[in-house]
Design brief:
The complex is a heterodimer of chains A (116) and B (107). Helices cover 0% and strands 47% of the residues of chain A. Chain A has no helices and 11 strands. In chain A, strand 4 and strand 5 form a beta hairpin. Chain B is built from no helices and 9 strands. In chain B, strand 3 (33-38) and strand 4 form a beta hairpin. Chain B has a single domain (9-106), classed as Sandwich (Immunoglobulin-like). The chains are: A mainly beta (116), B mainly beta (107).
Chain lengths: 116, 107
C-alpha cells in the first residue's frame, strides 16, 4: 500500500514569492492534516480536513496561507506571499479517523521550504 | 487541551531497555495515549497506542498506570537505529505534539 505522497520534497524561494505544496493521502483515508514543523520543534497543526471540509483551521495564518482539498482526496497548501519565518518542513498526514481518541495518523516525508 | 510533558532528551546504549515517561495529568476518560517516532528528514511514524494497563506490539510496550496520569514507552534492547525523537500525544480537541524526547543511542 502506498503511503502519503508529498511534493516537492524541497523548495527554495525568495521572500514575497508564492509557493504551493501538494499532498496525496493514503487511499480511503477521509481525514487529511497539514502540519508545519520548525527546527527542533514538534509538528504544529495548521489545518485538518474531514473529506472536503476544513473542520479545524484555527492555526492557519489566513492572511497568507490557504488550503484546499478538492473532491476529498488530494490537497494543496499555498503560501502567498512567503516570509522568511515560513521556512520550515510542511508535513501532510492522513487517517481514517473512526474516532478522534484513537486516531492514528500516517505522515508523508514532508516538504522542506527555505525562504531567502 | 490535553497537555503532555516529556523529558527533552535521553541517552542510552545499544542493547539496553529504554523507558520514556510522559505525563498527562489532565487526561480525560475517553482519551487514548499515542506515541510517534520521528527520524531526521522523515514524518512521524505511529509506534503504539493504549488506554490502560499494558499494550505490546513488535516494536514497543506501553505501560499505563491505573490513574492514567502518565504513561511509559518501553523500547526493548535498543539499537543505533532507534535514535529518534519520540512524541507522546493524548488525542482530544487540539492535536499537540510538543517537543518530544530526543533519544540518542550510543554504541
Amino acid at each position: 500500500e502506498a503511503g502519503v505522497v508529498q511534493s516537492p520534497r524541497y523548495k527554495i524561494i525568495e521572500k514575497k514569492q508564492p509557493v504551493a505544496f501538494w499532498c496525496n493521502p493514503i487511499s480511503g483515508h477521509n481525514t487529511l492534516y497539514w502540519y508545519r514543523q520548525n527546527l527542533g520543534q514538534g509538528p504544529e497543526l495548521l489545518i485538518r480536513y474531514e473529506n472536503e471540509e476544513a473542520v479545524d483551521d484555527s492555526q492557519l495564518p489566513k492572511d497568507r496561507f490557504s488550503a484546499e482539498r478538492l473532491k476529498g482526496v488530494d490537497s494543496t497548501l499555498k503560501i502567498q506571499p512567503a516570509e522568511l519565518g515560513d521556512s520550515a518542513v510542511y508535513l501532510c498526514a492522513s487517517s481514517s479517523r473512526v474516532r478522534q481518541s484513537t486516531d492514528t495518523q500516517y505522515f508523508g516525508p514532508g516538504t522542506r521550504l527555505t525562504v531567502l | 487541551l490535553a497537555k503532555t510533558t516529556q523529558p527533552i532528551s535521553m541517552d542510552s546504549y545499544e542493547g539496553q531497555e529504554v523507558n520514556i515517561t510522559c505525563s498527562h495529568n489532565n487526561i480525560a476518560t475517553n482519551d487514548y495515549i499515542t506515541w510517534y517516532q520521528q527520524f531526521p528528514s522523515q514524518g512521524p511514524r505511529f509506534i503504539i497506542q493504549g488506554y490502560k494497563t499494558k499494550v505490546t506490539n513488535e516494536v514497543a510496550s506501553l505501560f499505563i498506570p491505573a490513574d492514567r496520569k502518565s504513561s511509559t514507552l518501553s523500547l526493548p534492547r535498543v539499537s543505533l537505529s532507534d535514535t529518534a525523537v519520540y512524541y507522546c500525544l493524548v488525542a482530544r480537541g487540539k492535536i499537540i505534539f510538543g517537543k518530544g524526547t530526543r533519544l540518542h543511542i550510543l554504541p
